[in-house]
Amino acid sequence: MQFALPPRRSPNSLPGAHSSRLPLYRRKQLKTVAIFAVAILTLLYLVSHLFFSSSTSIGAPAGTAGVVIVTLLDRQSLSQSYIDKIIANREDYAKRHGYTNFFASVSDYEEAISDDPRSWALIPAVRHAMAAHPKSKYFFHLSPHALIMNPTTSLKSHLLDRTRLESVMLKDVPIVPPDSIIKTFALEEKDVDFILTQDSEDLSPSSFILKNGDFARFFLDLWFDPLFRNYNFAKAEIHGLDHIMQWHPTVLARTALVPQRMLNAYSKDSSGASLDGSYKDGDFVIRFPACDEGKAQDCDELDPYYTMWWKKAKGS
């Protein structure tokens, strides 16, 4: 009987002699490919990250307004004729400079503010404007008891330009006048996200500019926190802001104070203006604080200034 014999092997060949070289070579190839792949993926990540950062650093793409003017109207306490004047003032200014208006009603936020003073509604109103205009760069909140008196002046030339802002911001001054131990920082324009004024007693959020971005959303959420709203501050959101600025350096480090007349001049009949904070002809904005406290549906103090503005608007 014959049995099949296994094929003979060459005396010089050892099991796996050829196959051992091939996997080693392939491993080197794969290692090289993996290194290149990781390098390419890292590069793509960095490029995409930089692009994403620049796109969310708040430019104003074509077709979007660089500035949104936010006006919160309490239609339950203001007459329609008064509201019409405020709207006309804002619309004229926005049309001149390519800005967008966002008119909100306090009643839209009654559920959010619950039993809190109605003035707290300015915060969700600004948040609402940001959600409605996510690509706009700046949000300019302006009290309904204020008029833009210099219609030809753009916010950029007046305040937002880098050189301009850095030259007028108040440095090393008490946050809450007259003698708060917490003082403003010396900032560069690129580090500023929040611009506002103060009067003789407090910060004055009736008129402020907020730059769109992560800080803005964080700041508005912090300011509207129930902890502050339930604290029963005498001046509600104003004293809440005073507190935040003095106890939260993260916010203060992004905030620029400017002289009152640049953004929030008080009428001569209103008390509480800071030194040189009362309106003078040519100022950008005039505000009527007494109207916030009045019960009447019309603010008679506004009428002569509205006539002055109307003549300027028609003549320019």
Automatic annotation (TrEMBL):
Single Gene Ontology MF annotation? alpha-1,6-mannosyltransferase activity
Q: Which GO terms describe its cellular component?
A: mannan polymerase complex
Its domain of life reads Eukaryota
Q: Name one Pfam family in it.
A: Glyco_transf_34
Give the matching InterPro entries: Glyco_trans_34, Nucleotide-diphossugar_trans
Q: Does the keyword Heme apply?
A: no
Keyword annotations:
Glycosyltransferase, Membrane, Transferase, Transmembrane, Transmembrane helix
Report the record's Gene Ontology biological process terms. protein N-linked glycosylation
Where do transmembrane segments lie in this chain? 33-52
Q: Which family does it belong to?
A: Belongs to the glycosyltransferase 34 family.
Provide the protein name.
Answer: Alpha-1,6-mannosyltransferase subunit
